[in-house]
Fold these 4 entries.
Entry 1:
Amino acid sequence: MEDVIQKRIIANERVIGKLANMVIRFQEMFEENTYAECLEQYTEIINEITGLEIDLNKNDFIEEISEKEYIQTEKQVNELQLKLNKIFEQINLMQEQLNSEKQKKKNREEYNTISKLIEDYPPTSETLV
């Protein structure tokens, strides 16, 4: 955005410089030439000013579009950031669930191992007799 503003300032400075040069040239010509020549030069200056106005309007239009694109891009970035935050929350929740399931599996395996060991021994009713 700053680049656009800097370019616009530079463009405006160029326009102002061109306009100043045209006015100075016209004043010099007005003092030295006939009415017809001055009128011709005046017409050329008006055409140049019109062209400069068009350039300024283009710059305004480009700046407006750039600003809209900047705002739209910021909006999209914010939306993506929100989506990413939700995804990270889901990942963390799933990680917790995975850890819980791993612990359950480990407990189940330990239980099964212990139960197999216990099955290898006779029941206490048989051993006490």
Entry 2:
Amino acid sequence: MQSDSQARTYPPVEYRWDIPAPLDGELNEVAKFAMETVVLEKGMRDKPELAEQYKSRVDYGRFTATEKELEETRDLWEAGGVMLRAVAVNPIIPPSQQFLQEWEVLICSYNTPGLYLYSDEDRENLVPDPSPSYWYRPRVVRSPTSGGEPRIAGTHNFLLTNVGHTYYTGGVNGPNTFDGERPPCDYFAPSPLIQEPPAPLPSGG
């Protein structure tokens, strides 16, 4: 969220997600929890009221890091849309620290129909975000709680503890491998990969 006194020129970014990989039972629940939590984090840029929902799903350290990241991007507005897909879930054995179970989720982010930026100084012209599609590997754990009750109903005590390092598809920001192999993001990419800027909001929107 940027200047409260100024209305948006374009609608906020739409983050769509799905799970195209054939994941069953608990692995599908883990992927779903990770996707919902990641989308909450991204949505906080425009809807700070989502912060409490996000905070209930992550450890405290991750939440404070997110708050700092948001403060550093207050001067720009974002528009457009992104597709996120969970394409694999790998159990971590043994789990770290005190956790009962731990998983690593492979999420592929596709820049479609595309991210666009504009500023308070130029609120009419959209500039395509140059960031390519990327992938990352957040960690989800099952954490023991007092009384055995989950922090969120239906989540089986899941918590997101780590969003993971971001790897761009061109290998710019690190090894372009997942467990020694190229991640299957190309295989699960939307087709066609549409690139289309959003329409502006009606006057006064």
Entry 3:
Amino acid sequence: MPSNASYRPLTKKPSGGAGSPLAAPLVLQANTALTAFSALFLFLCLVASLAPTAPSASARGGGPRRAGVRAPACNPFALPGYVARLAPTNAAPAGLGTWRTFDPACAASPLLAALLSSRPSTAPHHLHTPLPASLAMLRNATALLVGDRTDHALLTHVCDIAGEKVEAVDAAHPWGAPLQTVPRAHRWPNNDAAALKAGQTADERELLDTGKRALAHYCYLSDYDFLLTSVYHYGTDTASRWRSLPSFVAPSLFEDRVSDLFVPYISAMSSSLPQHRSPTLPPARSRLDLVIFSSGFWDLAAWAREDIKAGSSATSDLSESRLLEWRARSVDMVAALAKAWPKTSLAWRSSQIPSSTEPATVEWWTGELGEGEQPKNHPLFSLNRLSALTNARRSVLEPHGDDVAKGLRDRAARFPRRLLGQGQLDPVSPSIDAGGSIFTEMLLHQLAVAASGY
């Protein structure tokens, strides 16, 4: 039978003889090489997995990378942890809260302590302990909070921690002109086909009283040329349901507020025109670095009011239709912000869970509770409803499988909830020594992420 050894080049012995190193079968040499390569590859993978990772970039993208700003080595706010305390101060005898994790490789953010140590000795939270952490992300930066009265409270806490004063922007302010220029097409009843068909007419008091209401609030840290500002909206409302409130500022629809109020406001603070400038104002802003969006309490108030009117429980679980509608509208709202500022980093803040020691009512939230009037048993929220909104929000930011809200993924960076039942400023807003300080360090972290180009 003929031999086929000549057709096996990998197993045939070379001519070096049995005692030669070349005598080993070629297939064994190839196997040794592949084994060594695999071992090296696995070693490199292990080293990479142990190294700290930079924050993941969302599909929204951040702004342009700024010189001198490095991305945080890790994100402690995305990890399980607990509230620890910094050194006591006169304004916070128990010490300001800070978020600590159980991972020594990513224990805490150093940015809040760095900010406190950098403030002048007249600041209420000055620690007199210089720290090396860089605050380059604050240089000539601007951040915008888009939310409700809780965002105003958080802005106030950040400004108090920095030792700065909060300023209101009304119609008389150089940046407040948008309050007076809202198109009539975006005012009720012109934006409500059913109301127009029924012959409804506008309440002219809305136009007359606008000048007394605030478009926004801000504070300015001159040492860093950093401006933090907050603007407000009425949640997912599409029917101008809050137009009769004494504090209402048109328009009601979120997308109209973005185009009619928020964009002109940011444009005014960025303008060098004489009507937008004053010696007492911060310098014209060169860009908007970060937008932090939140929504929830106005929607909870609307659902509670509907349930009370229908004789139903205002604390029952939210229906599937309500949650799906809220989630879809929230995606629209985030998309409106992304369209308005396409080069700006965008984050979505979850609603905090207030303590139950001071229950909030619908009338308290809307401002309809008169002075000295006994609160009605109309709860603004319940923990199960807040939790449902948190899960709906996470389902948008962390899509799984085929569950992709409106066909889009990763619309904004996640801004997680890290407080449960800590001290309150009012029935819904956190106090400065826990919620205010932890929000401040989360804000600094997100600004660093945005400035590093993520």
Entry 4:
Amino acid sequence: MRLVQTKPGQYERPFDTLETFHRTIAAIGDCFQDGSEHYFVVSPVRIRNKPDVNDLKQAWKALRHLHPRIAMSIDETGTSCRYTVPTSDALDQWLNETFIVHPEEEIDVISREKLHLRFPVSPFFKLHWLPASQELLFRSPHWYVDGLGMMMIQDAYLSILSSPAQHVVFDGSEISRIPPTMDDLIAPNFEITEEAKKALEAELQVALSGPEVAVLIEALPSVEPRHTLRASRKFSKQETAQITTAFKQRGLKFAGAVQSALLLVAARHSAPANGRLLYMSIFNIRKYLATPWNGTAGASGIYHTARLHSFNMENGKDYHSISQIQSSFYAESIERTFGFMPLHIQNYTSMIDVPADVANVGSFTARAGMSSLGVVDDHLQNRYEGSRYTIEIDDWWIGTQCLNKELQGHVWTRDGQLHMAIHYNEAFWKNDDVEQFIDEWKSILATEFIH
């Protein structure tokens, strides 16, 4: 799936299996014809100063030069992505289409929790500058970027902005910085074999066998989504230190420990009581990639996978029981799936390829999921000191648009504090029910690990 030159200055390749997955899941909302996308990624960065808008624009151009994949587009068939080396005029056009400045008078009262609800989604990776709240709002379809990649892209942008680059030249050499696909790096020349089919079947059998799948009982019967909303909580630095220390003392991994608390809350709010919780765990696989793509050079690639898992609720009625189930699950190396990963992702793609107006009938999608972003400070600094600006981050978060009945959990630590958030669609949930849910999630962690 290497880039192929199709005409002077134009390069194309087919979407790989992970990009196809995200393109497919984004399209489940096409039936509503409002342009919304499931899992559309949003991440605002609030800073403590107001750089000159021309410096912001120049940094955006320089970021494209460093990470040209953010400027790729979809070809006419919808099956391939394309990069075109820009002329000066084309570069200015791209800048006008993807860097949006919102005048201060346009937004009287800024609520960072709702910014991403009011702007329409776009087929392009865009950056919005909101001087009224001093926020850089990064917004993108998921096939362009994942959570860890977004942090590294934001880090690159702020580094460039603090010391504005000289004029950059787009001469085609930048295509060498477009990362290979996950298929190319993890499963080159993959072929579907009987062995791969059996491995996938064994993987799914563990997750899909057992009692009836339980669903969250508070989900509303609506079918058509409205706005995505966000509920969030955080622990103090002292509390976070106690929690993370206790995780290590119990031999628990961060993602599994926090997810165990989420699943306990979900079990309390799900039916039937003797059913099983079905959920998907996300795994970042960048550390398994070849150099240099396992570092910042691969920032604009998407490199993650997922595994379905389930457990009988009768076997997980308290935190300890669920955390033991999770520990066993996370102890299994994700590398065991590499031999059949493209087939694995293709299978997930077929499972989710259901229009939202069909999937939202009933409550089958009413489940709680979680994505762990880890330690944000490992990838995104709090302070950037450069020749032009000293830029400090005042706040940061990331989330995704939701078109079904899932409660999408996101967790991370930044500046020593543990953050938790849930994204949900207001058509399917009462705000008070979600606020209660996230309060219970936080309370379980506090009860278990803060003394």
